[in-house]
Write a structure and sequence with these properties.
By secondary structure, the chain is an alpha/beta fold. It has one domain: 3-Layer(aba) Sandwich (Rossmann fold), CATH 3.40.50.1360. Helix 1 packs across helix 2. The longest helix has 18 residues. The chain is globular and about 40 Å long. It starts with a strand and ends in a 9-residue tail after the last strand.
Length: about 230
């Protein structure tokens, strides 16, 4: 059975990044499998984490999702992780990137083969204003996938490029599902994800650690509608 969501409300985005950075370095210090996300929000947390613990040599680093673009493209989640985390580390992890330069179906099949059966120790996720998480978008057929760990996903939010995403069962098998959400434009989606009934209209509401811990780190703006 999924566990209850632990919600921590930070004063601002900077404090939220600090909380998440400490969760990341705790996991990195123990080694194991960590899945990370792209987007504008987690970059500061990655930079802080690299400063706190520059040795990630015991980690295998995975991606919760990826856009199907070359790895040096400005839209690439791998590029963001490389620039904010990997280049700052003294001892980098083993990186298991999605080959986004391939067609989405081909890239997803390859990633599914790599990650199937891997027990994630931590999965870091965000939430979009529409309630999506990773590249699991409202009403997407990917939300119904129960057998594969990674699938191709059509974009439901900008930028509109094909994607590869980990599935709900794969993400929910993580020992720690860690959400980082900041900004008032996310407040409605946060309320639906953590205070509403779970359902495919809000994909983030469906991802909970089945056996471990689910932690949502929010700033005050993102948490504004919780409990209302």
């Amino acid at each position: 059975m999924p566990q209850e969501v632990e919600v921590r409300v930070a004063a601002d985005a900077g404090e939220a990044a600090q909380i998440v950075a400490r969760e990341l370095v705790d996991a990195a210090a123990q080694g194991g499998h960590i899945a990370v996300s792209g987007g504008s929000t987690p970059g500061p947390a990655y930079e802080l984490a690299a400063d706190l613990v520059p040795d990630w040599s015991g980690v295998e680093l995975w991606f919760a999702d990826e856009r199907c673009v070359p790895p040096d493209d400005s839209l690439s989640n791998y590029r963001l992780i490389r620039e904010t985390l990997l280049t700052e580390l003294f001892q980098p992890p083993v990186v298991r990137r999605v080959h986004g330069e391939l067609p989405a179906i081909e890239a997803a099949a390859g990633y599914d083969e790599q990650i199937s059966g891997i027990p994630l120790d931590l999965a870091l996720l965000g939430i979009g204003p529409d309630g999506h998480t990773a590249s699991l978008f409202p009403g997407s057929s990917a939300l119904e996938e129960r057998d594969r760990a990674a699938v191709a996903a059509e974009p439901g939010f900008e930028p509109f490029v094909p994607r590869v995403t980990l599935t709900v069962p794969m993400l929910s098998a993580a020992a720690l599902v860690l959400f980082l959400v900041v900004g008032e434009d996310k407040a409605e989606a946060v309320a639906r994800a953590f205070a509403g009934e779970p359902g495919p209209a809000t994909p983030a509401s469906l991802v909970r650690s089945a056996e471990g811990r689910t932690l949502a780190v929010l700033d005050e703006a993102a948490a504004a509608l919780l409990g209302k």
